[in-house]
Input
Amino acid sequence: MMESGKRKNGKRRWISTGSRVQGASHIRNGQPCQDALSIKRDKDYHVISVSDGHGSSQCPYSDEGAKAAVEVAYFVFDSIFKGRGDPFQNFVANKDIWIPKQIEQNWKSMVTLIHGTRPVPFSYELYGATLLTLVVANDFIFALQLGDGDILSIEPISTDGNQEDESQKKTQVDWVIPPDIRIGSETESLCQTDAWQYMKARIIPLGPEDTAPMFLLSTDGYANSFNSNEGFKQAGADFYNLWEEEGLSFIDDNLEGWLMESSAQGSGDDIAVALVKEAVVGN
Output
């Protein structure tokens, strides 16, 4: 069971983990993993990002574009925390224009440098990738999404206390940023002109008494491995219950295998998943 109690000195402590796996179809076809994952931890905040390189013939270097995307996300958000002023107010003021523009501009600068002297004529499309990022801090949560993939919140639902089977605790699972309804494999991308305009951002304030839910970030290869949205959301609930019952080490030991199994039995695509949950210290 996860430890219970109070926050130390009123500060939240976040615990996070994640894994990425090469898709079953990519293994068969000898294609590299196009997904990237980054989990950066600071004493006061975590920055967690996943990115899905498009992997098409028009995007031969999208695995590098995905890696650049998660690196840029950390750079931009870390600079806000290390800059002047209150981070929460800075996120509120800049979430719709400055932050998205900074991510796009820095990503395009980075892939231009990465391309260097390659013989292929340069274009941003060569490196096309999505980006999903979650920043978790003491007093707020910030989410940003460009393109497909999912950011879920999972939290327990209060019951009357008579539930005998602890493993069947009810949870409420929902998207932090509602997904778009898409046709085929189309998705927004960092390689687009004015990509910043397509980024969706949400900030969730956390008061001292608020209990933060667990969050799951995943590239679209994970949700696409399920037959329905309800099946995917149930997987989020299962992660929450397993973390509560078995602890983080159990998740760490098994996550890669679970994702490989999901890809093999489902989408066949690469999968990157990150989980983050508030921990509380004992009295």
Remarks:
- The domain at 8-278 is CATH 3.60.40.10 (Phosphatase 2c; domain 1).
- The helical segments are 24-29, 62-82, 87-94, 98-115, 220-223, 229-246, 248-265.
- Residues 62-82 form the longest helix (21 residues).
